[in-house]
Specification:
By secondary structure, this protein is α/β, with parallel strands linked by helices. 58% of the residues lie in helices and 11% in strands. The two termini are 19 Å apart.
Length: 131
């Protein structure tokens, strides 16, 4: 089985957040799929943590190494479809890319982002529940 995985899930696993163990259980033996934008979002998430002084540069570099070890199939999505979703759901394009990815490959989305979760439901995307 395949899953579309978003940045919130990846960061939660890497930084040992409360849902980490459950996320590992859900993703075990699954093929992880993500739009290519997730690569850039990971960098942005670590830079935000650096800016907020939540982590050190050394910790962020260790986090990036951990991210690079996760086998994720990065895929292209249709920008037009994503922008239509973005407008319809009043969400950022990065979130719409994930929804478009799940729709294109007809696979569930795994996210910890409540707003993305709600938009995905409205777009008839199957979700993998964390709790």
């Amino acid at each position: 089985m395949s899953l579309v995985i978003d940045t919130s899930v990846i960061i939660a696993v890497i930084t040992n957040e409360p849902h980490r163990q459950r996320l590992l259980e859900i993703t075990r033996a699954k093929e992880l799929v993500a739009p290519r934008s997730v690569f850039w979002e990971i960098g942005n998430a670590f830079s935000a943590m650096l800016k907020q002084k939540r982590i050190t540069l050394e910790q962020s570099l260790i986090g990036i190494k951990s991210y690079e070890m996760i086998p994720i199939q990065m895929v292209d999505i249709d920008l037009e479809s994503a922008l239509i979703i973005s407008e319809r759901q009043n969400i950022y394009a990065y979130d719409a890319y994930l929804i478009a990815c799940a729709q294109k490959y007809k696979i569930p989305l795994l996210t910890l982002d409540k707003r993305l979760n709600m938009a995905a439901v409205k777009e008839n995307v199957s979700l993998m529940e964390v709790e």
